[in-house]
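New to this. Help decode both lines:
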Amino acid sequence: MATYLKKETKGELNGSPFSFGIAVAEWNAEVTDAMLNGALETLRKAKVKKSNITVIKVPGSVELTKASQWLANTMKYDAIIMLGCVVQGETRHFDYVCQSVTQGVTELNLQYDIPFIFGVLTTLNQQQAIDRAGGKFGNKGSECAETAIKMAWIRKLNNF
Protein backbone atom coordinates (compact mmCIF):
# COMPACT_ATOMS: atom_id res chain seq x y z
CA MET A 1 0.00 0.00 0.00
CA ALA A 2 1.27 3.43 -0.84
CA THR A 3 2.18 5.24 2.36
CA TYR A 4 0.48 8.44 1.24
CA LEU A 5 -2.87 6.58 1.18
CA LYS A 6 -2.59 5.59 4.84
CA LYS A 7 -4.98 7.34 7.21
CA GLU A 8 -3.12 8.79 10.16
CA THR A 9 -3.98 7.58 13.64
CA LYS A 10 -5.46 10.33 15.77
CA GLY A 11 -4.51 10.36 19.44
CA GLU A 12 -2.46 7.80 21.31
CA LEU A 13 -2.72 4.09 20.75
CA ASN A 14 -3.15 2.05 23.91
CA GLY A 15 -1.97 -1.51 23.58
CA SER A 16 -1.55 -2.13 27.31
CA PRO A 17 -4.30 -4.78 27.61
CA PHE A 18 -2.81 -6.94 24.86
CA SER A 19 -0.04 -9.44 24.09
CA PHE A 20 1.69 -9.68 20.73
CA GLY A 21 3.77 -12.27 18.96
CA ILE A 22 6.24 -11.19 16.31
CA ALA A 23 7.81 -13.53 13.78
CA VAL A 24 10.71 -11.93 11.92
CA ALA A 25 12.82 -13.27 9.08
CA GLU A 26 16.61 -13.12 9.46
CA TRP A 27 17.09 -13.00 5.69
CA ASN A 28 17.90 -9.40 4.73
CA ALA A 29 18.53 -8.55 8.38
CA GLU A 30 19.45 -4.93 7.68
CA VAL A 31 15.84 -4.37 6.68
CA THR A 32 14.00 -6.82 8.95
CA ASP A 33 15.89 -5.71 12.06
CA ALA A 34 14.93 -2.10 11.32
CA MET A 35 11.30 -3.18 10.86
CA LEU A 36 11.42 -5.13 14.12
CA ASN A 37 12.85 -2.12 15.95
CA GLY A 38 10.07 0.05 14.52
CA ALA A 39 7.43 -2.44 15.65
CA LEU A 40 8.90 -2.75 19.14
CA GLU A 41 9.15 1.03 19.52
CA THR A 42 5.52 1.46 18.48
CA LEU A 43 4.37 -1.22 20.92
CA ARG A 44 6.46 0.37 23.69
CA LYS A 45 4.96 3.80 23.01
CA ALA A 46 1.51 2.19 23.14
CA LYS A 47 2.30 0.95 26.67
CA VAL A 48 2.56 -2.74 25.80
CA LYS A 49 4.62 -4.43 28.52
CA LYS A 50 7.87 -6.00 27.36
CA SER A 51 6.71 -9.23 29.00
CA ASN A 52 3.68 -9.21 26.66
CA ILE A 53 5.80 -9.31 23.51
CA THR A 54 7.44 -12.44 22.13
CA VAL A 55 9.83 -12.29 19.18
CA ILE A 56 10.77 -15.37 17.17
CA LYS A 57 13.44 -15.10 14.49
CA VAL A 58 13.30 -17.53 11.58
CA PRO A 59 15.70 -18.04 8.65
CA GLY A 60 13.54 -16.53 5.90
CA SER A 61 10.13 -15.23 4.94
CA VAL A 62 8.73 -18.65 3.97
CA GLU A 63 9.25 -19.79 7.57
CA LEU A 64 7.19 -16.90 8.97
CA THR A 65 3.97 -18.84 8.46
CA LYS A 66 5.04 -21.81 10.58
CA ALA A 67 6.51 -19.64 13.35
CA SER A 68 3.31 -17.59 13.43
CA GLN A 69 1.26 -20.76 13.68
CA TRP A 70 3.39 -21.90 16.62
CA LEU A 71 2.79 -18.56 18.32
CA ALA A 72 -0.96 -18.77 17.68
CA ASN A 73 -1.16 -22.30 19.05
CA THR A 74 -0.03 -21.03 22.47
CA MET A 75 -3.26 -18.99 22.65
CA LYS A 76 -1.32 -16.23 24.47
CA TYR A 77 -1.49 -13.48 21.83
CA ASP A 78 -4.08 -10.98 20.70
CA ALA A 79 -2.36 -10.49 17.34
CA ILE A 80 0.69 -11.78 15.53
CA ILE A 81 2.94 -9.63 13.36
CA MET A 82 4.90 -11.23 10.52
CA LEU A 83 7.96 -9.24 9.35
CA GLY A 84 10.11 -10.11 6.36
CA CYS A 85 11.65 -8.75 3.19
CA VAL A 86 11.84 -10.33 -0.25
CA VAL A 87 13.81 -8.47 -2.92
CA GLN A 88 13.36 -9.31 -6.61
CA GLY A 89 16.34 -11.14 -8.04
CA GLU A 90 17.15 -12.58 -11.44
CA THR A 91 15.10 -15.77 -11.00
CA ARG A 92 11.45 -16.58 -10.33
CA HIS A 93 12.25 -17.55 -6.72
CA PHE A 94 10.90 -14.13 -5.68
CA ASP A 95 7.48 -15.01 -7.11
CA TYR A 96 7.30 -18.34 -5.30
CA VAL A 97 8.37 -16.91 -1.95
CA CYS A 98 5.90 -14.02 -2.19
CA GLN A 99 3.07 -16.35 -3.19
CA SER A 100 3.87 -18.80 -0.39
CA VAL A 101 3.98 -16.17 2.33
CA THR A 102 0.87 -14.37 1.09
CA GLN A 103 -1.10 -17.60 0.90
CA GLY A 104 0.20 -18.62 4.33
CA VAL A 105 -0.87 -15.44 6.11
CA THR A 106 -4.27 -15.59 4.40
CA GLU A 107 -4.80 -19.16 5.59
CA LEU A 108 -3.73 -18.29 9.13
CA ASN A 109 -6.15 -15.36 9.23
CA LEU A 110 -8.97 -17.67 8.16
CA GLN A 111 -8.06 -20.54 10.52
CA TYR A 112 -7.51 -18.60 13.75
CA ASP A 113 -9.60 -16.08 15.65
CA ILE A 114 -6.70 -13.66 16.04
CA PRO A 115 -5.33 -11.33 13.37
CA PHE A 116 -2.05 -12.05 11.60
CA ILE A 117 -0.52 -8.84 10.30
CA PHE A 118 1.28 -9.09 6.94
CA GLY A 119 4.52 -7.14 7.20
CA VAL A 120 6.54 -8.67 4.40
CA LEU A 121 8.11 -6.15 2.05
CA THR A 122 8.17 -7.31 -1.57
CA THR A 123 10.42 -4.91 -3.40
CA LEU A 124 12.16 -4.63 -6.75
CA ASN A 125 15.48 -3.63 -5.17
CA GLN A 126 17.28 -3.17 -1.87
CA GLN A 127 16.82 0.61 -1.82
CA GLN A 128 13.03 0.27 -1.94
CA ALA A 129 13.24 -2.03 1.08
CA ILE A 130 15.47 0.36 3.03
CA ASP A 131 13.11 3.25 2.20
CA ARG A 132 10.28 1.29 3.86
CA ALA A 133 12.22 0.16 6.92
CA GLY A 134 12.77 3.54 8.51
CA GLY A 135 13.69 5.47 5.37
CA LYS A 136 11.81 8.05 3.37
CA PHE A 137 8.59 5.99 3.28
CA GLY A 138 8.47 5.37 7.02
CA ASN A 139 8.77 2.08 8.84
CA LYS A 140 6.39 -0.69 7.80
CA GLY A 141 7.22 -2.59 10.99
CA SER A 142 5.87 0.32 12.99
CA GLU A 143 2.76 0.46 10.79
CA CYS A 144 2.22 -3.28 11.33
CA ALA A 145 2.41 -2.86 15.11
CA GLU A 146 -0.13 -0.06 14.91
CA THR A 147 -2.40 -2.28 12.82
CA ALA A 148 -2.00 -5.14 15.31
CA ILE A 149 -3.11 -2.90 18.18
CA LYS A 150 -6.09 -1.60 16.22
CA MET A 151 -7.16 -5.11 15.22
CA ALA A 152 -6.82 -6.33 18.82
CA TRP A 153 -9.13 -3.52 19.93
CA ILE A 154 -11.64 -4.24 17.15
CA ARG A 155 -11.76 -7.88 18.22
CA LYS A 156 -12.08 -7.02 21.92
CA LEU A 157 -14.72 -4.29 21.55
CA ASN A 158 -16.87 -6.45 19.29
CA ASN A 159 -16.45 -9.63 21.34
CA PHE A 160 -15.08 -11.57 18.38
